[in-house]
Amino acid sequence: MASLFGSGLQALAGAVELAVSSGSILLGRAAHAQILKSVDPPPLPSFLSNHLINMYAKLDHPSAAALLLSLDPSPSVVSFTALISGAAQNRRPLLALRLFPVLLRSSARPNDFTLPSLLKASASIPCPIAGLQLHSFSLKSGLLSDPFVSSAAINMYHKTGLISHARVLFDEMPQRNIVAWNAVMTNAVLDGRLDTAMEAFISLRSSAEVPNEVTLCASLNACAGAECLWLGSQLHSFIVRFGFVANVSVGNALIDFYGKCESVEEARRVFDAMLNKNDVSWCSVIVACAQNADEEEAFRLYLAARKEGFVPTDFMISSILTTSSGLSGVNLGRSLHAVAVRSCLDSNIFVGSALLDMYGKCGSIEEAEQVFESIPERNFVTWNAMISGYAVQGNASNALKVFDDMTSRSEVPPNYVTLLSVMSACARGGWLTEGMELFEKMEERYGIRPRMEHFACIVDLLGRAGMEEKAYEIIKKMPMKPSVSVWGALLNACRIHGKAKLGRVAAVELFEMDPYDSGNHVLLSNIFSSAGR
User: Fold this and answer.
1) Of 61-75, 128-142, 269-283, 492-506, the least confident
2) Are residues 514 and 484 in the same domain?
3) How many separate domains does the chain show?
4) What is the extent of the structural domain holding 304?
5) Model-level pTM?
6) 415-to-403, 419, 446 alpha-carbon distances in Å
7) How many CB atoms lie within 10 A of CB 180?
8) Are residues 219 and 270 in the same domain?
9) How far is residue 189's CA from residue 158's CA, in Å, rounded to a whole number?
10) Which tens digits make up the pLDDT trace of 286-314?
C-alpha cells in the first residue's frame, strides 16, 4: 500500500511538472488539490512542496508560491531557489532580491543555481549595488569559481552599465565556458560595441572552447550592425563547415545579416535552403526584401507564409505593413489592418506603431488618429509615428500638439527622431519661430545634440522662409562637415528664391561630394536661368 501511495504522489508530481511545461495554471491547481487530498495530515513532503513552489513561481503566481514556502517547516535551498528563479524569470526582480536575506536567515545556504537567478534579477534594476553585493557574496562563499555564477555576474555588470567590472571579472576567470563568452559577445552587440564582439569571437576561436548557436548568432548580429559583408561571409563558411547551417536560429541570423548588408539574393538563398522554417524565418526574409526596396517580393513572401499555414505574429504583421506604404496602397494596408484585428494583434504596440506609420505615409491621417487613440500603451515609436504622420501632411499645429502631450503627459522622453519629425512639420507648415526655438534649445531641454538630419531640416526650414543667408551661417558653424542633404537643402532654397550667388556656393560643395549627380547641375542651371545669367 505504501508503495502504491508513493507512486501516486510521484504521478501527481509529474502532473505539476506538466502544468509548468504546458503553462496551465488550471492543471497545476487541480494537481495541488489532489495532493492535498492525498496527504493527510500535513505538512507536504519536501519534494512535493518544492514542485508546487516551482509551479506557482514559474507560472507567475508568486503569492501562492510564497505561502507554500512559509508553510514548509524546514524549507531547503531548492524551495528558495524555485521561488527566486520564478520571480526573476517573470520580471519581478525586487521579489527575488527580497528573498535573499530571508534565505540567509534560514538554515539553507545559496548554491550555484540560486546565485545566477539572483544576479539575473539584480541586472533588471537600474541600481548596481545589489549586483555588487551578490558578487561579493559569491566571492566569499567560493561560488564565483563556478562558471555559471561568474557568467551571470558578467551579464549583470553589462546590463547595469559597469562594463569595466565585467571585463575584469572575465579576464580573471580561471575557467571560461561558452556561457561566459556568449555573455560578453551578446552584451557587446546590444551596447553597439561591435568591434568588441568580433574580437571576442576571434579570441574564442583561439581558445579550446567550441562556439554554439548563441555565439554564431551574436557574431552575425555584430557583422550585420557594422554592415561588414566580407567578415559575415567568412562566418557563413565557418557555419557550413562545422554543421550549424541546419540550425534554425543561425539560419534566421544569416538572413537578417544578408538583408542588412543589402545582399537580398544571398538572404533568399539561405532562406530557400532552410529545411525547417519558423515564423521568424519568414519575418526575416520579408524584412530583408522590404529594407532593400523590394516591397512586391516581400508581400509575395507574406502570402506564401500564410499559404504554408503560418499564423500572423505581431512581428510579421508589423513587417509587412511597412511594405504596404512603400507600395502606396492604403487599401492593402487596410486589408492587413483587418488581419491584425482578426488575429487580436491590433492593440499590440508594435503592430499599432506600424499601422500609424502606414496610414501616415499613405496620407490617411484620420485613420492614423483612430489607431493612435486605440493603442493602450504608447512608446516612443508610437508617438514618433503620429508626429511624423502630421509632418508628412505639413500639419505643424497637430504635430506640436501631440509633441506637447508626449512631453507633458507621458513618461516617454522624446528622442532625436521625435525632434526631427517636429522640425520637419514646422518646415512644411511654415512655422519658423517654433521650429527654430526647438532647434536652438534641443540640447538644453532634452539633452539631445543636433545630428546631421536636424541641420538639414533647419536649413530647409529657413530656406522655405526665404532666409538662405541665415541658413548658410548655421552651416558654417556646424560641428561636423555638412553632408549632401544639408547643401542640397540650401541649393533648393536658392533655386526657389533666385539666390544665384549663394546657390553657386552650395552647388560647388555638392559637385565636390558627388560630381556625377546631374540633378545638382540642373538645379544650378535653373537658378542662373531665372536670374538671367
Assistant:
1) 492-506
2) yes
3) 3
4) 286-291+298-376
5) 0.69
6) 11, 7, 8
7) 23
8) yes
9) 11
10) 989 988 888 889 889 999 999 998 888 88
